[in-house]
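Recall the central idea of this unit: under ordinary conditions, the amino acid sequence of a chain determines the structure it adopts. In this exercise we apply that idea directly, starting from the sequence alone.
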Amino acid sequence: MSYDEPLRLPVAAIPDGCRDWTAGRAGVWSAALPPRWSFLRVRRSIAGAVSTFALCAGAWAAMLGGLWPFVAAGFAVYVLWVLARPELVWAGAPVLLLALAVEARSLPWVVTAVVASVVVATWAAVAVRLRARSGQLERALEAAGDTTARTPDADAVLQRGRFLFPVGLTVLGLGVLTGATAGLWGTADDERGSWVMAIYLAGLAVTALASAWLGRHRAGALRRAPAPVLRVLVRDDAQGTTEVYAADDLAAVRPLFTVDLTSYDDGEEPDEDEADGEAGDEELERLLDAVDDDTPGPVREAVLYGAPFDGAELVVVSADEDPDQPPLTEWSTGPVRPLSPSAGMRRVAKEKAREEQNRQLEEQARELVVDRPPVPVRRWRAGWLDWLAAALLVLWGAWFVAMWFSESGAPLWKLALLGVLGLYGVVRVPMKLAWRITADRSGLWVTGVRGPRHVPWDDFRSVRRQSFELKLRWRGDNWSVAAPRWAWFERRQGLVHPYDALAAELTAMRTDPALRPTGESTAPERGRPLWPLIALLGLVWAAVLVVWG
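Accordingly, the structure predicted from this sequence is:
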């Protein structure tokens, strides 16, 4: 699909008087963005990792150094708010500073000073970020002019927040349960650690509930009155996130912001007719195929309902990728996340580099398959990276056991928790050590617990390496395995990860039947069931718990 020719939005779907959000006006909007040090755009994975690290450090300090559990857990929650939910920092920073003042007498002054300085500095950075929102809103309204329109889903049941509300209540219940049973968990150190976890869970619950309320409140306000409208271009990236471009950025050079969207649903009860059910399944498969395509979608004309700014809610009406379908109406399931001009261009450059790498891998795989004499059966199996992943998992489990069983007579709750964690290990380790994928003329045979699963070529949907995982998807099911990966080192040394090579070769076979194997595989070639090895490891793990416990 050429980006010089965006998919057109029917004129009837464009409100009268709707202005184009041109690159010039969008540049004025971008000039109102806060600096990068205000935590404008932090990945969710990084925010979660930093918060988890702060929790672990705080729990260690609480159990060994006597830090008040409220401060230990509160700081970890506060870090999460700074990076992912800045609206809550206004309440969190004063409470955390007050708790530090109460605890100051029992802490070294250096610790109190460092933590207080971090809280004050991040509070100021968040203040800069939140203050900049008014400038973004003002410039977006100037770009839209006086043109407003009712959102297409104004009369529909509001869906925003329906998922996070029950999640928040569930996590809150877990936190209350953890705190109520803190006195039953072994030593005084264990009790303090359990209080840290209880308070942290309560903080996560507050985060989820506040996010649900904010999203629902902003989405409701957008639908209660006519909203500003702007004509733009949109494109879905390889991960399914929507990128928004200026209306005259036909080459999709510089995304203005990203936002997660979900398809419009009018709230009607589903039809129970079998034909409709099959159509729904086909639509779901089409959406999953688009997500797993690992390439960005075409550029499409769209209309934004609502003024975009950092944290805003939007409704987007865009041209569907299928020209036979009516315009697609979607609402945001997360806040608008702006991109500075440099960050937007870096994002596009990285995406193009990844596309080029994928294209080269597919060409190499196709050449390899074409040049190789026809083979009856093609097999892939676990290699040294998978064995390394299994060894790391086993070492982590051994460290956990040694740390918790340093003293004889471990409490029952530790044995129960380690038993649950061990069940995960005894299933994953055999998979990492003994996975196998076999291709023959009938399809794929994929390693399973009870035995190899057969995937006909017609049912095979996609295979891709995503982060550390190799993911296969076929009609109605999927399979994955993970191994270490260092992208920077691979690029510098010109190396190809085994998962990338496997995915490229299987993709070539999927798209071109002439490249597939010509024979039928035998039972030994397909691999053995994993359950005997899983059962053996489970017995070994149970024996370890009995001996040490």
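Residues 93 and 119 are 6 Å apart (CA to CA).
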